[in-house]
Amino acid sequence: MGVFTYSREENTAACELANQVPERIKRRRRAELMEVQGEISLEKNRDLVGREIEVMVEGAAPGRATRLRARTSAQAPEIDGMVLLSGEAEPGDIVRARIERATTYDLHGRITGAVAQL
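-> structure tokens emitted (118 positions)
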């Protein structure tokens, strides 16, 4: 889930409504929602620990020469978390990975086998 604070857009009905919500309240509400969402995300990611899943390798993980960055079919680039992998594969490879650790938005695992190469 992504949460954005409302901002007035010209030529929209909401832009002209009276009693606009103050910025500090918008920021507080966003922070509260993101805190709850973080707890939900962590719980869902922890459910994957110990499982094998298919992921597509994107390339080297940022700042980690020995790790690969991959995504599940449910993770969108630049929006969702990622899967950080140990093992060897090329960008575009679809591999099986055993998830060994979970954080709020990212999964950590190791490659256990190849599924397909693109």
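Helices lie at 23-46.
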